[in-house]
Fold this sequence. Notes:
By secondary structure, this protein is mostly helical. The chain contains 7 helices and no strands. The relative contact order is 0.12.
Amino acid sequence: xxxxxxxxxxxxxxxxxxxxxxxxxxxxxxxxxxxxxxxxxxxxxxxxxxxxxxxxxxxxxxxxxxxxxxxxxxxxxxxxxxxxxxxxxxxxxxxxxxxxxxxxxxxxxxxxxxxxxxxxxxxxxx
Length: 126
């Protein structure tokens, strides 16, 4: 793990999962209104949860994709499908998560997820 503080560790994981371009853009858009929220994300989500040793980043990506399908959060789903490739997740694994989600989250949610995944694949030439 890189960094001493929870924030530093979180920023390291955030960069390895989401990529430097995504994190740099978020940092460029920091302002008085969103700064505390961005700090919260880096500390709590990335520094405390994504750094826990109980699951690999690969498994965390798959679980996150499934939960975002269930919640129907397209923008976050797009971001985490793209990020999943940084964690070694394959297109076939993403497809299997969507199929599993169809069973437990419903066909409309899985249908939206299929279209969202295909958009990400096209944009990222996967």
